Amino acid sequence: MTSILSVNTVRFVVLLFLQVLVLSNINFLGYINPHLYILFILLFPVKNNRMTFLFLSFLLGLSIDMFLDTGGINAGASVAIAYIRPVALKFSFGTLYDHQSIKFSTTELSQRITYISILTIIHHFIFFSLEIFNFSKIILILENTLYSSIFTILLCVLITVIFSRKKKK
After folding, report:
1. At 88, which CATH number?
2. Among 7, 109, 15, which Cα is nearest to 48's?
3. How far apart are CA 109 and CA 160, in angstroms?
4. Inside any domain, residue 169
5. Keywords of this protein's UniProt record, alphabetized (predicted)?
6. Residue 28: beta bridge partners?
7. Is the dihedral of CA 91, 79, 8, 157 positive or negative?
8. Which residues lie across from 32 on neighbouring strands?
9. What pTM, to 2 d.p., does this model score?
10. Is there a domain that residue 22 lies in?
11. Digit-coded pLDDT (tens) for 56-74
12. In-domain check, residue 10
């Protein structure tokens, strides 16, 4: 249990500082701004307490908001995807989620991409909707969501593939 706690603590801190110090300074072509910190929410263990998970998601988003002075939009988007994560897990992994036995290193790549894509697109749509907060600029919200989501999905999939531990058969 302490191994899981230490891995998640390190993941929380590393993703927080990576987002704040490096990734928040990327604004490629005016649309692309990766939000890699959501990887903490995506990879958090399924079996843990849901209220603790929601609180940690809020704390992660709020920490990023405090560093970047973004007024709570990261916290709102983080809590939203943490709250709907069980639906995305059920949709992407089916019976594995029903039995609470999901290990991302042993799942198929297509299932991982589906799961990451669903939650990333939802996160980015909520994030940019709160950031722009003007319905007349829906095209700008959708452009930002699309381009940033593609880049974030690619980074998340790449990192999960690189750091996944394959078990020997």
Report:
1. 1.10.1760
2. 7
3. 10
4. no
5. Membrane, Transmembrane, Transmembrane helix
6. 32
7. positive
8. 28
9. 0.88
10. yes
11. 999 999 999 999 999 899 9
12. yes
